[in-house]
């Protein structure tokens, strides 16, 4: 099929794009919220363990599938297939990942729209447009539709421009901004009363909680969600990587950046919660559970910013700009998965495919918005806590049991000719074949 494919122009371009996909609201909003709801440092400990022992091997599997296939998720998996059954299984796994990416973006766009509305609120307050400032942070159907549509427009705008001029170019711009803002906000929060107590809660684990079923499934879902696994995203990003690049090193670098930024986000949010508590804002219920849950950043943190006087407006603006940037770096990768499938399998021009897919996903978002109290949590849990780990597990099964071992080695050797004698190659193939699928299955059974 005569469809011209893009490619990342540099190693830095891929790292920024893949890290941008990994670093999103899952890290800066989801990770701290999950940490606060699941025992603080105990959750951090389990998350870090699962990120490196389960998520990284699965991450490598998806990158390898993509670079070998040099195509969208379905086509790449089918290129590895030997029989009709394998091809059908490949279609199921690849297409399920594309659907999962679309479902995630459908609810993700709503939450990202809220981040944008909260970023605009301080600007409207400073300029004296108080009624507008109140409207943008008040739950309503028109507000949700407007800002979800605005966020989806930005995502579509970037993806229409392709790999190098769209995904790579904007990831290189947005990621440094995100990291800089995050570090500046952490430094500021650490100067406030109550931050020390939050830091202690974040870094001192209660070991007795690490095997709790709820904590395990939340940590596993968080690890897979934050690395964009099980969504076809890393398969398609892998297909844009040069054959000369060392995938083992690249995969480790992206995983490390992702985990590091999630950890930094916890250093910001958890101490900020305790700062808010010191200012009289209620954080925990009498039974010790988190009051705000998934709405943490829209209730606790704005209440904290309000106690800072006029300075709080600038801090609030910086924080929600940070959140909006994080959301955008992830959303562009989620839209790329379905778009690449339409472009390559149905020979549709990229701009048309991007607009078409973007509108379809926006319509799904509208359906969620119309019954947001029920649908938002349902779609989020379905896609992130169940869909992503299961699909990532199937990718591991595909690599471990269907793809021939010598073909895998040849693919990795294209960017690392000595990998055959490395510790990675001695461990990873059987680990992906046996340990990853089994461990993911055990965690699910245990959680049920």
Query: What is the helical fraction, as a range of percent?
Result: over 70%
Helical element count? 18
Poorly predicted tracts of residues? none
Structurally, the number of domains stands at 1
**Any idea what the CATH architecture is?**
Orthogonal Bundle
Q: Can you lay out the helices and strands and say which pair or pack?
A:
Elements: H1 11-22, H2 25-37, H3 41-69, H4 73-79, H5 84-126, H6 130-136, H7 141-159, H8 163-189, H9 195-203, H10 213-226, H11 233-239, H12 247-278, H13 296-306, H14 310-345, H15 350-370, H16 372-402, H17 405-413, H18 423-447
Helix pairs in contact: 1-8, 1-12, 1-14, 2-10, 2-12, 3-4, 3-10, 3-11, 3-12, 3-16, 3-18, 4-5, 5-6, 5-7, 5-14, 5-15, 5-16, 7-14, 7-15, 8-12, 8-14, 9-12, 10-16, 10-18, 11-14, 12-13, 13-14, 14-15, 15-16, 16-18
Keywords: Membrane, Transmembrane, Transmembrane helix, Transport
Protein name: NSS family neurotransmitter:Na+ symporter
Membrane topology: Multi-pass membrane protein
Structure explained in plain terms:
- Its main location: membrane.
- The chain crosses the membrane at residues 12-32, 44-68, 89-115, 145-163, 175-195, 215-238, 250-276, 312-335, 355-374, 386-403, 423-445.
- It is found in: Membrane.
- There is one protein chain.
- The chain is mainly α.
- The chain has a single domain (11-447), classed as Hydantoin permease.
- It has 18 helices and no strands.
- It has helices spanning 11-22, 25-37, 41-69, 73-79, 84-126, 130-136, 141-159, 163-189, 195-203, 213-226, 233-239, 247-278, 296-306, 310-345, 350-370, 372-402, 405-413, 423-447.
- α5 (84-126) packs across α7 (141-159), α10 packs across α18 and α15 crosses α16.
- The longest helix is centred in the first third of the chain and has 43 residues, at 84-126.
- It is globular, with a radius of gyration of 21 Å.
- The model has no long low-confidence stretch (mean pLDDT 85).
